[in-house]
Give the backbone structure.
Amino acid sequence: MSTMLIVTPWLHGAELLWEQMLTAALIFLSFSLLLLSQSRDRVRHSSIRYIVIPGIIWICYHMLYLLPMPLSLLKLLSPSAFSWYTHPLMSESPALSLYRFATLTEVIKFAALVALVPLVYRLCQFRQTAETLIAVMVIIAAITSVYSLLNFATAGRFDIIPAIPPWDYPWREGIRGTYSYKNQYATYLAMSVALGTGWSMSIYQSIRLRSGIATNWLFSRSFLKLAIVVLLTGLTYITLLNTASRGAVLSLTLSVLLVFGSYVLLQADRRQALMRPRALIAGSLVLIVGSLLFVQSSAFERFTQYEFEDNGRQQLRETAIHVFADFPLTGTGAGTYPYVQHNYKPASLGNSGMSQRAHNDYLETLATQGIIGAGLTALFICALLSGVFKRSNADVSPFLLACRSGVLTLLIQSAIDVNLSTFWLPVYFIIICVLGWHFREASHVNRVQKETGTI
């Protein structure tokens, strides 16, 4: 798991096939060790099984796309797929998937994502493991940020992770980090900024609880730790702004406003705490510093130059809608969109790397998985989100707020860009969801222990 968390972000976010399979292999290896241990019983009887069961159904359904199918049945389920396989130049045996190798690759990745759920959940049962996972994720993101800023300042002199064409633009046009497509790297950084902010808030919270006992807390180890985490998060935020990704910055901003707003506004005591002078001063300083960094960044320059122009994305989304209209029930098969989109898109889009994706993961999922597959995907994701966003009377930890913000960032960004082409972003999403599930359960347990006096 540590190898995956450290290495995969440096492999273009697992964009190439061998990078995706390496990441999946590391997950399966870790999961097999879980199955061989006695820890599997704790996972089997936990609430996490309500996520795993929809995930298994989701995988089994997509495995059906790989099986040869009689033409009569195929014509009933997907008339467009029937026309595809009865074309005179088509020699493959008919199946629901138009390109079975692409779908097979996706099924392996889906299985790895589902296996990741009980694996991370079980690891979080060990003392401090959840906090350690977040620390590793934030630190690695910060290291890639330092690498990115060095290349941004020196025009790529220290570039050791060359971008995959056609995304090999000069560094001065926008930071792409260890990825090829800078918007995907920006999404990774935005989710990491959310985690780093939660980590900082958690340390500050622990300092406040001890400040009445220790008079020299300013020179304590905890304060030094807080300063380091704030520095790491700040570096990541500065790098995010200089990716020139409007969507990632906007997604992070909206997610923070939604999470923090709902946390503060729903309870009167939190609103009163927010209105205290110290909280107002601290919030104002954070807002001022963040705004000053933003107006000096590449993202601000891009906002002022292009505002909210979609760069042809509307045509890409219309292409996905046309594909879905032809394959409404079962789709073209998971992972097949880059291979079928050229039959539907207008010639004005050309055949660039950007035009091979819908730049809306929800529409692309509908086009490739159809109503049934997209429904099962939504069921799996909603099962994940239910444990992260479920309301609780217990005190909400900063880590849980951070996980909620990170999750929402990807969900919002997926409506305006493509995140499915890299495997690391879905993996990152699953890890954060399970971490959020753990922190919500931990908050509930702490509340019960306080009420019963067993803590």
Q: What stands out?
A: The radius of gyration is 23 Å. DSSP finds 19 helices and no strands in the chain. Residues 149 and 293 are 14 Å apart (CA to CA). The mean pLDDT is 85.
